[in-house]
Amino acid sequence: MAPSTMLEQALDFPRQLESGLAAARAAQVPALHFNAVALCGLGGSAAGGRLLAALFAEQLAVPVVPVDTTSLPGWIGPQTLVVCTSYSGATVETLGWWDEAGRRGAERVAVTAGGQLHERAVAADAPLALVEGGFQPRGALGFLLGALVGVLDHAGAAPGSVEALSAAIPSTMRVVTAERAQAGVKEAKAEAARLAGHVIVFYGSGARAAAAVRLANQVNENAKAMAFAGALPEMAHNQVLGWLGSARHGIPAAAVFLRDSAEPAAAAALHDRIQSLVAGDVSTVLEWHGSGTNELERTLALLIHGDLVSCHLADCEGVVALDIARLTALKAPALNE
User: Fold this and answer.
1) What is the pLDDT of residues 207-223, one digit of tens each?
2) I want to staple 101 with a disulfide (CB 3.0 to 4.6 A). Which of 52, 106, 222, 296 is the partner?
3) Is the pLDDT at 145 greater than 60, yes or no?
4) Quick check: 110 and 127 in contact, CB under 8 A?
């Protein structure tokens, strides 16, 4: 049975990774023939794909492109592997991508907890990674990331990624233990209190740029607060000037920089300079570091910590993290078409 709070769903991340990898093994994805991979998904179901492409960039044997457009790009065809991810199995856009990919003759794999996507994959006799249900899509990141890593490794697109992710799971377990401890809870709550009432922008370079997008989305959904994400070095060419407007108009804003001890020297120096500049524009600038022996472990640790902060931020903002009434109402017309 799924945990009843978003906080507990976030803390379930290590177990979910193992379960997602197992779902991919059970799918028995064969070695397929393709020259590119499209990872199709939206919302919480898209986070795993974005993170996979960033976390395992150096291990990818072919281009792997997250797709969240209204229609499939023109390059998708018979030489493409299309992985459609919808935790609910009912996302209208994802079902459309699945059907269109089939018409174009692409290889297809489904990652879902059930619903129509499950049914269509079975009907097409296509590989299916069936993950555990009952969670919020945004609370199922571990299932989806683990399953996607397994699918792409088994298919030949990301060789060695299963081994790397499996090796990182014990580290995520230690992170969860530390976050559950009194000191960890106190730190996460204190950071949430500092961020409350602010527009929040997360920044990161490399794989942490994808983590920044995930954490901004978690703040949006859990805390019902405005949050955005940016990547370095790109923001040094544009957004760094935008922060001047925050100071000029007295906009309550906060910046959270996701850092890593293995950043190249030039990237680290740019990070430091940007943080110093932004600190002169707003009163709240945080720097987060993840724990672990390698960059993958440390980035996963940042994801866990940021997810928990977003849950505590919901309490600070006086909202219910699980509440998605507005999303449900927004999707209802499309589901009834």
Assistant:
1) 999 999 999 999 999 99
2) 106
3) yes
4) yes
